[in-house]
């Protein structure tokens, strides 16, 4: 009969301080936020996000230069309208980077490795959504901050009013970031191939914008129904957030139309909440299923 032998091969027990759930969530968030801008990855992964970020800064810098040279405060781009004016660039950033966060682990079948450790499924989803939203917020907030600081340096009148508009625009950036990130991550999570994910996110953006524009055009030109035109804006992501800014934050209208009154703003904000919460639930189910496969 053979006897069993225990060999000491040098393994040591971990005796340090064990980190909790907050540490795991923070680590996942930082990892995904770095990935959104290609940090820690090859140089080619950094080209797209930083190129888009540079393009986003160009109109702000040009506007500030125009105010400084021509001494015309009206040349300064309105803070609240900046995201709407550059929505195509924002959509390109979202389409390029959402698959990096949402579909890479699914494509390479490594999601089960995350959940083989004590990583909660909801924490995994919240870290990705929070990282994508933070990346988008930075993309939108930095040019707006350049506009605000440039306006102060150029001595734009009524600095107190400018501060209120700036803070309201930052709140709008938060809502833009959450809504757009939620939509982009859900679409990307169901298209594991990155090329298809990019095309799918762009297609969702273009279809929603085009269909809403067609409905609004028909409602206004054929039926003279401006009420329908305003409510139709709820189904386009950029118009939806712009309605919240206009009706609840006192911004000027940047989209073609908006429902009237505070009620329209409350309904639009509720739509935003439903999109974010619904996307979180869908992503939870998607990554949980991927973790079991």
TrEMBL record:
Origin: domain of life: Bacteria
Transmembrane parts of this sequence: 47-70, 82-104, 124-151, 163-190, 196-219, 262-284
Alphabetical UniProt keywords: Membrane, Transmembrane, Transmembrane helix
This protein's name: ABC transporter permease
Organism of origin: Actinomadura barringtoniae
Upper classification of the organism: Bacteria, Bacillati, Actinomycetota, Actinomycetes, Streptosporangiales
């Amino acid at each position: 009969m053979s006897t069993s032998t225990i060999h000491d091969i040098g393994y040591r027990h971990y005796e340090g301080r064990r980190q909790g759930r907050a540490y795991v969530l923070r680590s996942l968030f930082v990892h995904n936020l770095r990935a959104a801008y290609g940090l820690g990855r090859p140089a080619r992964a950094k080209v797209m996000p930083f190129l888009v970020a540079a393009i986003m800064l160009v109109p702000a810098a040009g506007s500030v230069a125009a105010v400084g040279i021509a001494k015309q405060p009206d040349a300064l781009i309105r803070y609240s309208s900046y995201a709407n004016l550059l929505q195509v660039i924002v959509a390109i950033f979202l389409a390029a980077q959402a698959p990096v966060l949402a579909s890479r682990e699914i494509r390479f079948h490594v999601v089960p490795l995350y959940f083989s450790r004590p990583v909660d499924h909801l924490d995994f989803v919240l870290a990705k959504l929070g990282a994508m939203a933070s990346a988008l917020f930075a993309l939108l907030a930095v040019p707006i901050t350049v506009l605000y600081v440039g306006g102060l340096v150029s001595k734009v009148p009524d600095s107190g009013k400018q501060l209120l508009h700036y803070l309201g625009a930052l709140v709008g950036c938060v809502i833009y970031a959450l809504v757009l990130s939620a939509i982009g991550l859900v679409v990307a999570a169901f298209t594991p191939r990155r090329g298809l994910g990019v095309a799918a996110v762009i297609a969702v953006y273009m279809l929603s914008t085009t269909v809403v524009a067609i409905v609004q055009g028909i409602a206004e030109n054929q039926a003279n129904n401006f009420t329908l035109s305003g409510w139709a804006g709820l189904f386009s992501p950029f118009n939806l957030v712009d309605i919240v800014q206009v009706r609840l934050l006192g911004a000027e209208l940047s989209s073609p139309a908006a429902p009237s009154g505070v009620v329209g703003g409350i309904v639009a904000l509720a739509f935003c909440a439903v999109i974010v919460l619904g996307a979180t639930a869908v992503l939870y189910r998607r990554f949980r299923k991927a973790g079991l496969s």
